[in-house]
Design brief:
The structure holds two protein chains of two kinds. Chain A is mostly helical. Chain A is 76% helix and 1% strand. Chain A has a domain at 13-242. A two-stranded antiparallel sheet of chain A has the order 1-2. In chain A, strand 1 and strand 2 form a beta hairpin. By secondary structure, chain B is of the alpha/beta class. Chain B has a domain at 1-79 and 167-175 and 199-249: P-loop containing nucleotide triphosphate hydrolases (Rossmann fold, 3-Layer(aba) Sandwich), CATH 3.40.50.300. The chains are: A mainly alpha, B alpha/beta. Chains A and B meet through helix 9 and helix 10 of A and helix 2 and helix 4 of B.
């Protein structure tokens, strides 16, 4: 990580850590912070597939949703322990991901995308129709926010500010884990697969297994995000498993610049929710304007916001080294 | 020791016969050239030898062991490496990472999720050696997409050499290169001669006749001629092709 990146990261962390103290003063509300973090975590996990491995999963809502439902069902039928239920959600989503990945990992490109959509529809259909378990279209209602038991203390998450800090801690931990993964030997292999799957096979890698494993990891962590969402919403709802909602995470990742930057999906998630509230305050057709913005970015700058930032910085550095070569050396 | 052998390879795409009874031996540490017109089945033969296609009949043998129909990764792990006619690099990676990712020691750690790719000193060291071998010393940190065309051709061979293979299959290594760059690539390949088994598909006759120990001509999916460069110069097919204009050296 470069110095500039460290400083930016420090500033963002400081802003996030103090968010409950200023967010109401700028006309927004505490719950928004939770939404941004949860979906940012989801988008980061998703980007392991799209941005790093180049695998277009367009039905990722399935795993976010499985995480949410599994969290709720664990709470209702197994035991209302926060850690246990979160672990159950990760496991259920990872298993669902493992099942689907088994059927699609030999594919790539448009065929891969279509199969992820088909599987997502199956999960969504089950969530809607299996009324006795999922609550059907009404969703799984009446979930509680259990306290976070730390052994020496028990922290209530009933309040949105407390939940925000809990989600922030989880987010920071998972972000650090994902950062580690994309810079690991495994991370380098999946990036090689994105650039040239054929060559990776011809230098001796078991490409299928890497594609399978990265899908399982991504699905499991998306499931964790889904569980946090259920915790925040006090329920699990089929809507997040819809194709429509699966499209949101793709848009966040692309607008933010997940194809060129690790941090892109977080930027994209923040922009999505701020756009929703800011545009939503002006017009009820906010999603039309957001959609147009998405199209403009895809057409004009497919590398997204992070790509614009990188281009601006490299232009500035190039100018600086031309106009002041001595200073640049110093 | 690494002798690759094709025995009676047949391959059809639909009802089109692409390979018809291809039998060739590529002896240990020799340079064998393959020539023939476009669409003759040269690259398809490579694709069968390296596991991309499974032949309908026939066998591929490596030092006598049957490797027919194994997937590309398994054949690669047995020390049969290949380069591609249409370049197949990791464009966003540095030249060093292109080779490092292909080093077997790196591959062995491929499922390490929490280690650091940067601190992989064995892979880096081996990759640096390979880059020096293909003439790319000093360009380790340049992204593959920013290398010159000639350097990309050299890197294409570097990726294939990373595994320290017993057999190196080169698919038109000089494709698209000018005279000077071809000469540089010929020097590179000359340096490899005798250290491993080389099989090269090539249209550049001067390149092939200058380097190969023996040459096979493939046409209509069949081997229509084979022999040393000197023998092939007397071959009627070769004489009628543009090679006839090539002066004996």
């Amino acid at each position: 990580m470069g110095a500039a990146q460290r400083i930016s990261l420090g500033l963002v962390l400081a802003a996030l850590a103090t968010l409950p103290f200023w967010i109401a003063r700028v006309g927004l509300y505490q719950y928004l912070g939770i939404e941004i973090l949860v979906w940012g975590l989801y988008a980061l996990s998703y980007n392991l597939l799209l941005g790093y491995t180049g695998l277009p999963s367009f039905g990722h809502g399935a795993y976010f949703g499985v995480g949410a439902y599994a969290f709720g069902l664990m709470q209702k039928y197994v035991g209302a322990n926060l850690w246990l239920d979160l672990a159950g959600a990760i496991l259920a989503a990872a298993l669902s991901g493992a099942l689907v990945a088994t059927f699609i990992s030999h594919r790539r490109g448009i065929y891969y995308a279509l199969m992820t959509i088909a599987f997502c529809q199956i999960f969504w259909f089950v969530a809607i129709k299996w009324h006795s378990v999922t609550g059907g279209e009404d969703g799984l209602l009446g979930l509680k926010r259990m306290p976070a038991e730390l052994g020496f203390a028990s922290i209530s998450l009933a309040d949105n500010v407390a939940l925000y800090y809990f989600v922030l801690v989880v987010c920071v931990a998972v972000t650090a884990l994902l950062w580690r993964i994309v810079h690991s030997p495994f991370g380098r292999v999946i990036q090689a697969i994105r650039q040239n799957e054929t060559r990776v096979a011809f230098v001796g890698y078991h490409v299928w297994l890497y594609k399978w494993l990265v899908f399982v990891l991504s699905a499991g962590l998306s499931g964790l995000a889904g569980a946090l969402f259920a915790l925040a919403q006090l329920g699990a709802f089929p809507d997040v498993m819809s194709l429509h909602s699966s499209g949101f995470v793709v848009m966040m990742t692309l607008i933010g610049g997940g194809l060129v930057s690790f941090w892109g999906p977080l930027i994209g998630a923040a922009i999505f929710f701020i756009a929703r509230d800011a545009l939503g305050a002006l017009t009820s057709t906010w999603s039309l304007w957001y959609g147009l913005m998405f199209m403009a970015i895809v057409v004009l700058k497919p590398e997204g916001i992070a790509g614009m930032w990188q281009a601006w910085r490299s232009r500035r550095n190039a100018r600086a080294s031309v106009s002041a070569p001595v200073k640049a050396q110093a | 020791m690494a002798t690759l052998e094709a025995r009676g390879l047949h391959l059809r795409f639909g009802d089109r016969v692409v390979l018809e009874d291809i039998s060739l031996v590529f002896p240990d540490r020799r340079f064998t050239g393959i020539m023939g017109p476009n669409g003759a089945g040269k690259t398809t033969s490579f694709n069968v030898l390296t596991g991309r296609y499974r032949p309908h009949r026939g066998q591929v043998l490596l030092d006598g062991a049957d490797i027919t129909g194994l997937p590309p990764r398994a054949i690669a792990r047995k020390g049969v490496s290949r380069s591609f006619q249409i370049m197949n690099l990791f464009n966003d990676f540095s030249a060093l990472d292109n080779v490092a990712v292909a080093v077997p020691e790196t591959r062995a750690r491929g499922f390490s999720l929490l280690g650091s790719a940067r601190k992989d000193s064995v892979g880096t060291e081996k990759a640096e050696q390979v880059l020096a071998r293909v003439g790319l010393r000093g360009k380790e940190q340049v992204a593959a997409k920013n290398l010159s065309y000639g350097d990309r051709r050299a890197l294409e061979i570097g990726v294939a050499l990373a595994a320290n293979p017993g057999v190196l299959c080169l698919d038109e290594p000089t494709s698209g290169l000018g005279r000077e760059a071809t000469a540089r690539l010929a020097d590179l390949v000359r340096g490899l001669r005798g250290t491993l088994t080389i099989v090269a598909i090539e249209h550049d006759m001067e390149f092939l006749f200058g380097l190969a120990d023996s040459i096979a001509v493939i046409h209509w999916g069949q081997v229509i001629a084979r022999g040393t460069p000197a023998e092939l110069r007397e071959n009627p097919w070769v004489k009628n092709s543009n090679l006839g204009k090539l002066k004996a050296r």
